[in-house]
Amino acid sequence: MEENPVTELQRDVVIIGAGASGLTAATALRKAGLSVAVLEARDRVGGRLWTNDIEGAMLEIGGQWVSPDQDALIETLAELGLETYSRYREGDSVYINAIGELTRFTGELFPVKASTQREMERLIAVLDALVAEIGPKEPWAHPMADELDSVTWLRWLESQTDDIEARDNIALFIAEAMITKPAHSFSALQAILMAASAGSFSNLVDADFILDKRVIGGLQQVPLLLAEKLGEDVFLGQPVRRLEWSDSGVTASADGMTVHARHAIVAVPPNLYSRIDFQPPLPRRQQQMHQHMSLGFVIKVHAVYETPFWRDAGLSGTSFSPYEIVHEAYDNTNHEDPRGTLVGFVSDTKADAMFALSPEERREAILTSLSHYFGEQALHPVVYYESDWASEEWTRGAYAASFDMGGLARYGAEQRTPVGPIHWSCSDLAAEGYQHVDGAIRVGRETAAMILAKHDA
């Protein structure tokens, strides 16, 4: 990889963004005999995958988990020779209800009163049926699409049950845990797509499924190893400022170089498309669509302790509560590390509230929330770090883009429609594996195949 590249290049394909999707596409294209140049704005590859050493602790600042349905990611890990290990999950999980009562439990469903549990089971069954019927590939084409896209996730849940705790808990699995936006700000159709992309709503409820394994050494090794194989075709510190296009090809102008190519792949989150000056401007339909997509907001909190003390108390490190600042937490101890790490998440309006505080006040509030689950020892980590992707210039949110109300039914079918020689590729646009690395890889492969079909035509 070059940090001081040549001024002007000619390639078959220019790829904007060196995340998992762009690098997967570049790898497939070069394997097929096409020449590529990958231009990355950051001084590193990986996009929303980032493993870093913080005060002597290896932390996965971005995405990190592998679930058993993620075939594309699992295949890529095998191809790259990367090994995985299981997330620690022995012992009891913890749930805190609306009045602050803590209950230890095992299994998937939270320990709530019997009537609430029955409502949660009923809602999960209803959602699983909808997910199976609508699916992840074309939810906008379903006869109920307009109806489901015109009602918020919160309003849909309110229409289904009067049990407040049941709907708070069901809302959590989509709103705070995945979309990272308030339940009143996105549609029921968007929620169903989120569940469908994971195979079922039941899969989202099952933490042992959705957060099954981690990669030894960190998941960022996927883009790092892909970039290593691409070598001098990856250029860092090159944000693309302008993309000129016509039927005959594209010219990508970055800060220190220009690439002329037959095709372009824009492999960054949709909220960053507007950072590029497209000439001529994109069609009005595309312009409108991109304005209806935005990322959520979440703080990923890493707390490293001298030992995984919660295990001695018979706890797995898994905890949930829609009523706590930290709505979910897990044992995130690294492979063969004697220290213990908890990872917790603070989403949407709760994250807003945390960033209204000073760093010291925010740390105290978040650790206090963790202590509600795990006791006084949680207040005293040896390393504390907050992943704040909203402040990252070339990301500006987490985990992925979702549509505002009505946007998915209105624009969903056109998310990946090429504009002349320009293609779009990222996890935000995936069907299966939406907002996960698996989805990024799937879309990268599919985008490369689309270009190869054009190229060979």
TrEMBL record:
Cofactor(s) the protein needs: FAD
UniProt keyword annotations, A-Z: Oxidoreductase
Q: Which residues form the Amine oxidase domain?
A: 21-452
Q: Which GO terms describe its molecular function?
A: oxidoreductase activity
Q: Does the keyword Chaperone apply?
A: no
In which residues is substrate bound? F345
Q: Name one Pfam family in it.
A: Amino_oxidase
Q: Which domain of life is it from?
A: Bacteria
Annotated residues that bind FAD are located at S21, E40, A41, V240
Give the record's family classification: Belongs to the flavin monoamine oxidase family.
**Record-given protein name:** FAD-dependent oxidoreductase
What's the source species for this entry?
A: Mycetocola manganoxydans
What lineage, starting at the top, does this entry show? Bacteria, Bacillati, Actinomycetota, Actinomycetes, Micrococcales
